[in-house]
Amino acid sequence: MPWILNSRGLALAAAAVVIAACQTAGPKETPVSADMPVIEAPMEYPEGTVIHAITNGEPTSRELIAKEGTRETWRRDNGCTFTRDSQYDRVFSPSIAWRDCNSTGTIRIREKQGGLWPMQVGMTVSYDAVGDTQGGGSNWSADYDCEVAGTARIEVAAGAFDTYRVECRTPWRRMTAYVAPGVRRIVHFQQEPTRANSNSPRMTWQFVRVEPPPSS
């Protein structure tokens, strides 16, 4: 999908330059401006929704291309597709399948303990899971653990938000996500690999806007 640089786009491009200059660092955190409400559930989107973002300083997007039962499949503008199953968690769970995302593979979740929703500080979730990579290893550990570790007010391309800070780890990467009650979604995400042979690159992602599906 083309990125049109109207006056709004020029402002986002300028923001991208700033983000690119400091993408290896997390966002500046300040105390939240008010008591944090519990987030009952993450925002749910209809098929065809496009999420616009800035990834490592560059405008990017991903589209919800399929909803089948409890499964959602998203396609990034670089061709990577990935599927999550909402019977586990629509946001904080391993992708059960992915293609052309530095690798192609599947994950089988054997057990889930806990949960992050309704979201408030102290909630935890953990997954016992194994993965298979096409042309690579099989039955590797895909265990996944997350905790709502605190709150912070941060500023991203879309504006300033009071957020919950969620910290997650797998055997392959460490991740931090900031979830804003006002929009019920992640507004900033960053990850870094924890092993030399990880397929998860160092990355910083910031939410910009939601593009609803075309009217039928």
Model description:
This protein is mainly beta and 216 residues long. It has a single domain (7-211), classed as YmcC-like fold. The protein has one helix and 13 strands, in the order αβββββββββββββ. The protein has a twelve-stranded antiparallel beta barrel.
The CATH topology is what?
Answer: YmcC-like fold
Distance between the termini: 19 Å
The protein's oligomeric status is single chain
Strand content: over 45%
Structural class: mainly beta
The spatial strand order of the largest sheet comes to: 1-2-3-4-5-6-7-9-10-11-12-13
Output the helix-strand order. HEEEEEEEEEEEEE
| Low-confidence parts | 1-24
Level-2 CATH architecture: Beta Barrel
- Beta-strand segment tally: 13
**Helix count?**
1
Q: Rough shape?
A: globular
Helix content: under 10%
What is the CATH class? Mainly Beta
